[in-house]
Amino acid sequence: MTEDPTPRYTVPGLEREAAGRLIGALRLRLHALNDLHLTLKHVHWNVVGPHFIAVHEMIDPQVDRVRQMADDLAERIAALGGVAPGTPGALVAERTWDDYSIGRADAIAHLGALDVVYTGVIQGVRAAVEEAGEIDTATEDLLVGQLRDLEQFQWFVRAHLESAGGTLVTAQARTEKEAAAKGAASA
Predict the structure, then answer these.
(1) Cα 114 to Cα 5: distance, rounded to the nearest angstrom
(2) What separation in angstroms does the CA of 97 have from each of 35, 116, 133, 149, 162?
(3) Secondary structure (DSSP) of 38-96
(4) Mean pLDDT in the chain?
(5) With 70 as the cut, is the pLDDT of residue 2 above it?
(6) Backbone φ/ψ region at 10: left (φ over 0), alpha (ψ -120 to 50), beta
(7) Which residues cross the membrane (predicted)?
(8) Please, what is the end-to-end C-alpha distance for the chain in angstroms?
(9) Contact between 76 and 139 (Cβ < 8 Å)
(10) Which pLDDT belongs to residue 102?
């Protein structure tokens, strides 16, 4: 993080230092959501193949909801007395993950990669929920609602990758490229 997130003031009932810890966690979640909404649009624009229209149309509602989640987090950061960094430079400087690595590709390849992306985002939200639960129930509640939606979106993605027997074609994939290759091979 490029600056001390401890605010000069915060919401009643929270100590400034605790609010600063929370703001720090929320800033990274904000970056993750901004990155996710751009990644989803990238997939929307670069998906091809026989499942094109299904994936193309499935992605836009996810983009809209993820953008709303980012707005909600930014407003919570501001309410806590912090600064919500919304610039691309701040996102790139502070993120802890690499840029999405798949260009124009088959729908199933993109969905395989998105499954890995969603896993990373969801794990980050779960960690933030745990930290928020120790500090502020209002923020914890906001994150829990977002977690539910993100898990549903991953389920939508995984439904395209799952066999009738319940096996994910991208099981054991650790990277986007590995998951994309497994997805493409199964198509």
Answers:
(1) 31
(2) 10, 12, 25, 21, 26
(3) HHHHHHHHHEESTTHHHHHHHHHHHHHHHHHHHHHHHHHHHHTT-----SHHHHHHH-S
(4) 95
(5) no
(6) beta
(7) none
(8) 41
(9) yes
(10) 97
Query: Cα(117)–Cα(40) distance, rounded to whole angstroms?
Result: 10
CATH ID of 16-186, from 3.10.290.10, 1.20.1260.10, 3.40.190.10, 3.90.1010.10:
1.20.1260.10
- DSSP, res 141: H
Q: Which two tokens stand for residue 100?
A: 């999405």
How far CA 118 is from CA of 66, 84, 156, in Å, comes to 12, 22, 11
CA distance 126 to 150: 11
